Amino acid sequence: MKMRVPSIPLITVDPYFSVWTHDRLNDRFPTHWTGSRNAMLGTVTVDGERFRFLGRSGDAALEQVSLDMDVFSTTAVFRGAGIELTAIFSTPILVTDLYYASRPVSYLKLAVKTLDGQPHEVTAKVSCSEELVLNKAGEGRAWSETAAVAGAAAVRMGKGDQHPLWRSGDLIRIDWGYFYLAAKGNGTVGNEVFENMYAVWAETPVEEEALFAFAFDDIDSIEYFKKPLKAYWKKDGKTIEEAIAEAFGDYEEITARCKAFGDSFVAEATEKGGEHYAELLTLAYRQVMAAHKMVLDEDGNVLYISKECNSNGCAATVDVTYPSAPMYLLYNPELLKGMLRPVFRYARTEEWVYDFAPHDVGQYPLVNGQVYGGNKLEFQMPVEECGNMIVLCAALAEVENDVTFAAENMDLLEVWYRYLVKYGDDPENQLCTDDFAGHLAHNCNLSLKAIMGMAGYSRILERLGRTAEAAEAMNTAKEYAASFLRRAENPDGSYRLAYDREGTFSLKYNAIWDKVWDTNLLPDSFFEAELARYRAEVMPYGVPLDSREKYTKSDWTVWAASLTGKKDDLSFFCERLWLAYNTMRTREAMTDWYFTDTSEMRSFRHRTVQGGLFIRLMF
Asked: Facing residues of 443 across strands?
């Protein structure tokens, strides 16, 4: 990868089991995506002398000569003491396979070769601190014991006082469950103190290669309407020790599968948007997957719970699911259904009293009902969430060529459709997904959301054989689209931020579904005029979200840049988005909200919305 990546992923499993670092692996300790330290130390002993390749210690550091990453792996190469050491961190979180998308095991493969032609005796040791099982070091006492993993030496560490699912929040880490560290073959394990922290370690000889595994058993993963649910990978009774042993056995097979999948979408992205676009998708993939947790409900249905990271920690947030959906529509629609099921269930409870869709279903990992805005009407996003839910159900029906999921939820979809008809032509003063910008009346892009929702509802009805109703819904969408085009147009042919704000602009990302579905509600001239305005408004690191501020969103940038379907438009804006990450001084997991004039991060990191960058691969 040519980009100087803002933060380097090492372990990316879920919102809690998450380890990141910066350009030089042995300059500092890794961190959690929240920025809190996750101290890990990696060393090799060469002919009796110890050197570090990961983290910080009093040992001499090997020289890091290269660092690269692909979709699933991060590879660093080090030299010194007559050897070359290659360290490959991989998390095979494969979206196309439910089991591997859930299995909480990540790898470190080490390979050693001589540089001076002489044989060398090499051992490798990896130490992991209590910060992987506590919110902060010292908040409780960690302990450890050896673990029985077939064909490996293993140790597990956890907090002494276990209370699974005892709290929720945003910038916090897990302090229940058990972290496992294992070395394949005849290694040794133990515990120690480094940096005044309790830690566990695993050590193994390295003749040519060595393989370590990092794993986490969180015991219970999600509380779902007051019931604790276990992770999907446990559904057949598998233990974490069995999963680790299995992971050692299938390393070559699963990493090959991952590479083939990653290479495929990178090639397609390069063809449709260029090299910068492909690198953006490479950077986004692991983060998107690791912002979710997969469980099964009491009926055996997949639930795929997102965490709204670095925002407010909301769980199953509808307007986070909406931008993340393209990646899942492309590669595993069942996971998108798993995001929507909690919303439908909650909307049918007595607690939800509104005739529009909810914003969220809890605060991660407690999925018990909406928390955003205290459920007060003034903080709801009625048009936004109704449009999102209908569009996503329609998109599922399209990619699966099966309307079953939407049919099961038509009672709510009909109510939400009627809400769009009533309020979508000229939305009242309310929030949309860009709630950080505040309330806005007469929001043109929100009106487009309603129009796309109506079109999506029509397509669902058509598949259900309700052709007369489908035609009526599509005619309504056409009428509203004509109204939008008439009332929102600026003198230069572009379209406004709000109907009453002549001369303004905004990224009309919601119009993308007209392209994906080929519904032709909007003429080519609309898309051409919008892209011309975006080019006129562009700054060094992207085009602002709208006329009010200089900040933008990465997901909406790519949706807007894809509106014409032209490679030149997409590559033009992706080059600037790429430059923003390449130069960003804030070294955090991939942000989606930054300033286009400076590339400085505004806020938000490690959010699943980056799945929206895959939108151009849908058509």
From this structure: 498
CA–CA distance, 305 with 554 (Å, rounded to integer): 22
Backbone dihedral region for residue 204 (phi beyond 0: left; psi -120 to 50: alpha; all else: beta)? beta
How many CB atoms lie under 10 A from the CB of residue 6?
24
CA-CA distance, 96 to 86, in Å (whole number)? 28
Which tokens belong to 609?
Answer: 């919305």
C-alpha count within 13 angstroms, C-beta hemisphere, residue 394: 27
Strands of the 188-194 sheet, one edge to the other: 60-61, 49-54, 40-46, 122-129, 197-205, 188-194
Q: What is the DSSP string of 79-124?
A: EETTEEEEEEEE----TT-HHHHH--EEEEEEEEEESSSS---EEE
Q: CA nearest 338: which of 311, 373, 299, 377?
A: 299
What are the tens digits of pLDDT across the range 453-487? 999 999 999 999 999 999 999 999 999 999 999 99
* Torsion angle, alpha carbons of 514, 518, 520, 525, to 10: 70
| Residue-wise pLDDT tens digits, 151-199 | 999 999 999 999 999 999 999 999 999 999 999 999 999 999 999 999 9
Q: Bridge-partner residues for 222, per DSSP? A: 229
Q: Is the pLDDT of residue 587 over 90?
A: yes
Q: Collapsing DSSP states into helix, strand and coil, what is residue 148?
A: coil
pLDDT value at position 375? 85
Amino acid (1-letter code) at residue 412: L
Say whether 613 sits in a helix, a strand or coil.
helix
Distance CA 543, CA 109 (A): 41
Distance from the first to the final alpha carbon of the chain: 25
**Residue 9 burial by CB count (10 A; 0-12/13-18/19+): exposed, middle or buried?**
buried
ω into residue 228 within 30 of 0, thus cis?
no
pLDDT digits (tens, 9 = 90+) for 403-450: 999 999 999 999 999 999 999 999 999 999 999 999 999 999 999 999
Q: CA angle 104-108-113, nearest 5°?
A: 165
**Distance (Å, whole) CA 29 – CA 166:** 28
| 20, two tokens | 């990141």
pLDDT at position 275 is 98
For 551-572, the DSSP string reads: EEEHHHHHHHHTTT--HHHHHH
Question: In this structure, are strands 551-553 and 593-595 parallel, antiparallel, or unpaired?
Answer: antiparallel
DSSP assigned state of 228: E
Decide if 396 contacts 364 (C-beta within 8 A).
no
Q: What gap in Å lies between CA 375 and CA 380, rounded to an integer?
A: 7
